[in-house]
Design a protein that fits this description.
heterodimer; A: mainly beta; globular; B: mainly beta; 7-stranded mixed sheet; 4-stranded antiparallel sheet; 11 strands
């Protein structure tokens, strides 16, 4: 299976901060990388697909980049509603895998 | 109209099986694969497997091979996930999701079903 590693496991930030989250794959997954946001008690929500494409309805402050094994999710100006846990997921292999998640907390 | 509606919470004893349903609406059920993901309390997302509702073909994560079965009833646009030989570690929220056919991302999610395994 392809392993997905996210770092750091959590981070503290303030409203208005620029936040960057990293995800690494254990092998080349080209651009088959998706990002999700999850708030407590809710199902995950798709933010970014194919590494850098914004899902319909997702604010433009979210962006994704990367290819191969190294990917990033950036929030350009953190808003109060963005405090949540973020997961990456590879869809290169038919056997999908998620990263461990990164919790973005209020500083 | 909510696209994916799952069955309600369930409590099972160790060793039993649980079957969770996921009813699709608002799109053609047989055109998109369905995947299942679970999440233990305070833990991350764990992918379990996928099913093609048109053919019935499946693919399971190695961890669940032999214990999980994903099926469907196309006449009522419903997917099912059955997990057997339950143990306490299987206590989790189980989600179904629609897999986008081009990028295989989970673009629509069910609301989740809490399964508790307790004696």
């Amino acid at each position: 299976d392809i392993q997905m590693t996210q770092s750091p496991s959590s981070l503290s930030a303030s409203v208005g901060d620029r936040v960057t989250i990293t995800c690494r794959a254990s092998q080349n997954i080209t651009n088959y990388l998706n990002w999700y946001q999850q708030k407590p008690g809710k199902a995950p929500k798709l933010l970014i697909y194919a590494a850098s494409s914004l899902q319909n309805g997702v604010p433009s402050r979210f962006s994704g980049s990367g290819s191969g094994t190294h990917f990033t999710l950036t929030i350009s100006s953190l808003q109060p509603e963005d405090f949540a846990t973020y997961y990456c997921q590879q869809s290169y292999s038919p056997l999908l895998t998620f990263g461990g998640g990164i919790k973005v907390e209020i500083k | 109209q909510v696209p994916l509606v799952q069955s309600g919470a369930d409590v099972k004893k160790p060793g039993a099986s649980v079957k969770v349903s996921c009813k699709a609406s608002g799109y053609t059920f047989t055109r998109y694969d369905v995947t299942w993901v679970r999440q233990a309390t305070g833990q991350g997302l764990e992918w379990m497997g996928w099913m093609n509702p048109n053919t019935g073909n499946t693919g399971y994560a190695q961890k669940f091979q032999g214990r999980v079965t994903m099926t469907r009833n196309t006449s009522i646009s419903t997917a099912y996930m059955e997990l057997s030989s339950l143990r306490s570690e299987d206590t989790a929220v189980y989600y179904c999701a629609r897999l986008n056919k081009y990028n295989r991302n989970c673009d629509i999610w069910g609301q989740g079903t809490m399964v508790t395994v307790s004696s």
